[in-house]
Amino acid sequence: KDITPIKEKYQNDFLIGNAITSSDLEGARLELLKMHHNVVTAENAMKPSELQPTKGNFTFSGADLLVDKALAEGFDVFGHVLVWHQQSPDWMNTTTNAAGERVPLNREEALKNMQDHIKKVMEHFGDRVIGWDVVNEAMSNNPPNPTDWKASLRQSNWYHAIGPDYVEESYLAARKVLDDNGWDHIKLYYNDYNDDNQNKATAIYHMIKEINDRYAAENDGRLLIDGMGMQGHYNLSTNHENVRKSLERFITLGVEVSITELDIQAGGNHEQSERDRVAQALLYAQLFNLYKEHADSIARVTFWGLNDATSWRAATSPLLFDRNLQAKLAYEAVMDPV
Ligand code: XIL
């Protein structure tokens, strides 16, 4: 079978990325990764719990190895993630009360922890990365009123400790690092899933719009949030027309959009019927048609894993390459979506 690199097929459209662990940078996995992709995201290595497990003790060695090896192999690196409610250490935004219960930390301390983490991590990786997921998954999945984004925020530890402005404060801290160091080319992203859900997409839209409008008014029209990351963890009930509506809504914000964690669950038990294989390929084709149509606004399309065996959702065979690193029908669909 003729295997054309995905990154070649889309070279005039957007970068093609993948999520990596250290084993993806060796042997046959590295070969496949390199053939098809030009940018990588650390699947776990740059998360807060990895980088600052206890207060003030930064553990950069694992992430440094990964990043430097990826750069040496010719990949761009995208930074993931600075402020999140998962894979983040408890000390950042909670404390133990007299009764021994975990309660939110006071605003001042939590804000300082957040700002310190952002500054230290961003300055450490510097311009080895092309951008950052600054805030991840801040929005709830069922916004009570999508136009009221503050009331729609996830009730996370960050939210409870700091309040709804933790989102804006994160970007202000990250922007300051870029300004202080002259790293204008590094993009600051907001990243979230269920991006095809119109209520959630609407709430996110209003959040970015309000934060960016306020900043622009005081900063000569500059953006505070540069990009919207649609994670794209889809399944066979995802309707690509909903993905279209969200994508087109985000584009009207004037930010760049990237697809940051694409996979499509199809099947279970590490098995995929012919029917699921075909349905999965069809949805990949519909999505890449859509992405190509909006290539002017899309910077990057990143898959969340190289092959089905090592996916975080391995049981549902969500990727383009199978257990033996062989291209699936989904790969053919991405390469010939029309
Ligand atoms: C996932 C990783 O793939 C898993 O290995 C880990 O156990 C949990 O996190 N949204 C994100 C990613 O932003 O960081 C998550 O990655 C998947 C959902």
Account of the protein in words:
The active site is at residue 261. Residues 1-337 form the GH10 domain. This is Beta-xylanase. The protein has a single domain (6-335), classed as Alpha-Beta Barrel (TIM Barrel). It starts with 5 loop residues before the first helix and ends with a helix. An 8-stranded parallel β-barrel has the order 1-2-3-6-7-8-10-11, surrounded by 5 helices. A two-stranded antiparallel sheet has the order 4-5. The protein is built from 11 helices and 11 strands. It has helices at residues 6-9, 27-36, 48-51, 61-72, 107-125, 157-162, 166-181, 198-218, 240-251, 274-293, 329-335, and strands at 15-20, 39-42, 76-83, 94-96, 102-104, 131-136, 187-192, 227-230, 233-235, 256-265, 298-303. It has 338 residues and is α/β, with parallel strands linked by helices. (3S,4R)-3-hydroxy-2-oxopiperidin-4-yl beta-D-xylopyranoside is lined by residues 43-44, 136, 231, 261, 312.
Annotate the secondary structure layout.
Blueprint: H1 6-9, E1 15-20, H2 27-36, E2 39-42, H3 48-51, H4 61-72, E3 76-83, E4 94-96, E5 102-104, H5 107-125, E6 131-136, H6 157-162, H7 166-181, E7 187-192, H8 198-218, E8 227-230, E9 233-235, H9 240-251, E10 256-265, H10 274-293, E11 298-303, H11 329-335
Parallel strand pairs: 1-2, 1-11, 2-3, 3-6, 6-7, 7-8, 8-10, 9-10, 10-11
Antiparallel strand pairs: 4-5
Helix pairs in contact: 5-7, 8-9, 10-11
This protein binds (3S,4R)-3-hydroxy-2-oxopiperidin-4-yl beta-D-xylopyranoside.
